[in-house]
Predict the structure.
Amino acid sequence: MNFPNCNILSTDQFACADIAQLFTAAAVVKPYAKREQQTNVLQGAILSNLFFEPSTRTRLSFCWAFILLGGAVIVSSLISTTSIVKGESLCDFAKVVAEYCDIAVIRHPDAGSAAKYAECSNVPVINAGDGANEHPTQALLDIYTMEQELAKYDKTIDGVTLACIGDLKYGRTVHSLLKLLALFEDVTIHLISPMSLQLPKQFTEKLSERGHRLEYFNRLEPGIENVDVLYVTRIQEERLSEVDQNNLQLASFQINRTIYEQVCTPETVILHPLPRNSRSDTPELHTDLNDHPNLAIFRQVANGLTVRMALFALIMDVVEQISHTTY
């Protein structure tokens, strides 16, 4: 991939070399993400941060990543505050926004919307989640986190056994992650979900083509036994009918300390793209694991800032200039 001025719309765009290049850039920006050093390498540049679905981590980390590189951010968080509600097309909207910025990040409820937006934009576009389709930057930070966490136990992603748990039908983070995992070697994936929320076949094609192993489970315990990584996901209630929600039997898919310690190995890493559901009587990832050293969910959050800073630096073609703009 040629990163400068490139759109980031899908994990389909990435090869292993691109991931390596991104993670090399992440090492460069990490001291700035941790605020150990400061740079103004993007001084004068403007990001349009367009979030038309609810978001905390992704929205704030994209904003903060651009600011930490010295840039400025303009924000639009509701479709209802734009002229789209007056009938303006997404294409016209993209052309207008491009007049006010150097790069745009968009989250939109419709699958394929980021690609449609990018077709009409005169500046680079990053997909921050398009409906139930993809969330490429989340997958990149998940791979980054997975590498770091597995390294603590002298493991790599090559040869990993990963359990994906929860809403695999509508969970766009899983969709993007599995496409990236297909690039590695000798991966085993356990897909654990209610029958009605199983992974769509189009997201397993690359894995199957590459000879990776896929195993399906509709019970939790057999699926998480002896795995290296748990990737727990929230049920996407906003994309389900009330009837569907009532039929899911969510309690049988909950990860809590008792189940973890009884079934998983002492080295099993716990990931979750967040948010986790704290309103339910049966949260998918229980808070009784909050102090467990293998719970990496908040390290994922911190890594998201680093990876998104690196992505901005590559797209804006300023990685080599960062050290010269430190103050």
